[in-house]
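Worked example

This section walks through a single chain of length 266. The input is the sequence exactly as stored; nothing has been trimmed or padded.
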Amino acid sequence: MWMWRGCGTRSGGRGRGRSGGGGVGDGGGGRVGGGVRIGVSDRVRVRDPDPDPDPDADPVAVAVAVAAADADAASMASGPLTAYTRGLIAGLTGNVHISNPQPPIVTLTSLLTTFKAAETATVSRTKGTVGTRNAARTALRSALKTSVANIQAAADADPDNAEAIITSTSLTTRKVPVRVKAPFAVKSGTVSGTALLEVKAAGSHASYDWEMSVDGGKTWTEIPSTTKAKTSVSALPVATTVQFRFRSLTPKGQSDWSQPIGLMVK
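Given that input, the structure is written out below as tokens.
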């Protein structure tokens, strides 16, 4: 799986990065982050740091408004959003992988110009200027979200070149490990003296035998078999380590007993 971190330019000063984003800012560092999932397998996940950490912004408005970059970016009203948008526009212009960006580059440019003008107007403190600025910012963010989805779709359609497609737009990526379900897991239940057992399914038409031992595996006690790859056990001795094991039965035959897993019963 891949995730993209951010895009943009720097024009002075230094920005600090954390996990999840590259930096953007006007005259200083910043960064952009957030997440949009895509297809299966080696997926590219687009992360998009909040380019506009303005305190009166809706934090869940769009995917590009996720979290402030750092203390420097948090004090900026429009710089990170502006730099992020400019970087994305530059990355999409003439891009051979994204031949038909949506929204069009001219639309992003127009929305950015409107936002910048509205931001400048708020300096006058004239009534209504803040509302106009906020509306312009929301419109720009919405367009950025659409653009991110457009890039994501292009990467999803070509998994072999997904990283190249994303980085071609001036965004960056990092590979994210895919979680693999444990073949056998044991954990305490919500009620004292209980345990929850779950295994990786052996396939269709499978059944599962379970056993437990309270003497370190010297003797084993049967637990009722199930047709599901999980079961629960109650009335276990508290403050005692209990071991569990399982085996599966499928139309192809019966497996060996698994390696036991111990649990300190709570």
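What to look for: The CA atoms of residues 9 and 98 lie 20 Å apart.
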